[in-house]
Design a protein that fits this description.
alpha/beta; D-Maltodextrin-Binding Protein, domain 2; 2 domains; two-stranded parallel ribbon; elongated; signal; Phosphate-binding protein; phosphate ion binding; phosphate transport; lipoprotein
């Protein structure tokens, strides 16, 4: 009986000793297992701090800009100017961008006369405009599309045929790959950047024989679409299925062909300033910073234009 009691005590003691060792082992491992968790938590915390700092800097930059910017000029640049104004005001909520579409020449006159911060021109600036202080800031490249009414059977024009249609030498579509039908020549009003670029490229200054001279890109599109035998020129970014797009010298009007120079009718989109950009106020400088940024490039592409890079 005594031996059984001693044996029981021995077993009980061994069990207690084992539990004690297990407890010590568990306690000694706890710090080791918690250390990696602390290390893992540090990385996300650092990321959050970096993101927060970036957001703060952006907010501070936005908070530092307030006031208004005025743009005036080319009707061909309307789509681009409206998209730019909307995107810039979204980025800088305390800034208002107002755009008016009065024609390229009027826009350059407005910026030189101090009535506008920026003059939008869909042509290169003239020497006399530069002599007065206007600076040519090219922000995008646009193709000039030649269009007819949808029912026209002509599909392609050579450069010589296009010149001869606009100078009045060719007056019937049968002489330019189409049906026996009179040609109705549609163009823009004097002072239009599109007209200026078109006539300059084709060396047709003051030589075009227009049946109609219209005051906006939209008006040319509507007139050509609704007039049998009509031909007109418009900005490439406004083309839709209401008109027929002609190829020129067998080359389609698209970004790739304009960049390579294979399509000969293209022109710059200019945001003219009175003096260099560096001499403008902070709002205007911020606007140009945005236009020439990666965000600006995406905006240019989104409205069907070609970046300058």
């Amino acid at each position: 009986m005594k031996k059984r009691i001693q044996k029981s005590i021995a077993i009980l003691g061994a069990a207690v000793l084992t539990m004690g060792l297990a407890g010590c082992s568990s306690s000694s491992n706890t710090p080791a297992s918690s250390a990696p968790a602390a290390d893992t938590a540090e990385a996300p915390a650092a990321d959050v701090q970096a993101e927060s700092a970036a957001d703060t800097q952006a907010a501070e930059a936005a908070a530092g800009l307030s006031g208004s910017i005025t743009l005036a000029g080319s009707t061909s640049m309307e789509k681009f100017a409206n998209a730019l104004a909307e995107a810039f005001m979204e980025k800088y909520p305390d800034v208002t961008v107002q755009a008016e579409f009065t024609g390229s020449s009027a826009g350059v006159e407005a910026v030189l006369g101090g009535q506008s911060d920026v003059g939008n021109s869909s042509r290169k600036l003239k020497d006399e405009e530069k002599e007065k202080g206007a600076v040519e800031n090219i922000v995008a490249i646009d193709g000039i599309a030649v269009v007819t009414d949808p029912a026209n059977t002509a599909a392609d024009l050579t450069k010589e045929q296009l010149i001869n249609i606009y100078n009045g030498t060719i007056t019937n579509w049968k002489d330019a790959g189409g049906a026996d039908q009179p040609i109705v020549v549609i163009g823009r009003e004097a002072g239009s950047g599109t007209r200026g670029a078109f006539e300059e490229i084709l060396k047709l200054e003051d030589a075009c024989k227009y049946a109609n001279e219209l005051d906006s890109t939209g008006a040319v599109m509507a007139k050509v679409a609704s007039t049998p035998g009509a031909i007109g020129y418009v900005s490439l970014d406004v083309i839709d299925d209401t008109v027929k797009l002609l190829t020129l010298n067998g080359v389609e009007a698209n970004e790739e062909n304009i960049k390579t120079g294979d399509y000969f009718l293209s022109r710059p989109f200019v945001m003219a300033t009175n003096g260099e950009i560096s001499a403008q106020n902070d709002l205007v400088k911020a606007l140009f910073d945005y236009v020439y940024s990666a965000e600006g490039d995406e905006l240019v592409k989104s409205v069907g234009l070609i970046t300058t890079k």
